[in-house]
Amino acid sequence: MCTFLVHIVFICEYNTRMLKISKLTDYATAVVLFLQKDKSLHSSEQIALGVGLEIPTVSKVLKLLTKSGILSSIRGANGGYKMAKDIAEVTLYDVIAAIEGDTAITECTKTDSLCAQEQGCDTRSGWQQVNDDIKNILLKMTIKRMAELNGSSKPNIKVMVRDYV
Questions:
Q1: pTM of the entire structure?
Q2: In CATH, which of 3.90.980.10, 2.170.130.10, 1.10.10.10, 2.60.40.10 is domain 21-157?
């Protein structure tokens, strides 16, 4: 049994077709975890330096997170970005939805499904349950909890950002 589990982990680690979040979503999570450290304003340059990413990438993430209401921004020489909500209220699902938009594990689990085989499909209900379960897990995982799981409420963000090849 252990060999089988190790084999699955090996396949998942190197198979690019596995279920995973995008790099941009991973980076957005890192940005939110960086900003949750304190309530002060941070420039996009400070955030980029803090999470170890290029400014254009961070700028794109900041725009999407601000548009979704997770972050707030203030313009001007003394402006910057900060959390718009308490970190106990922001979920991982919120961050994913801000970057990816409405997501689903299969076509038929979307609200407005376009799958031609949807009516006669024997797997639709199962996939919808899996999709709902994943969504519920992501809705329960708050940014506060992610910071706690990292070992403190002030995580070292550079450790969390990974470049998936």
A1: 0.75
A2: 1.10.10.10
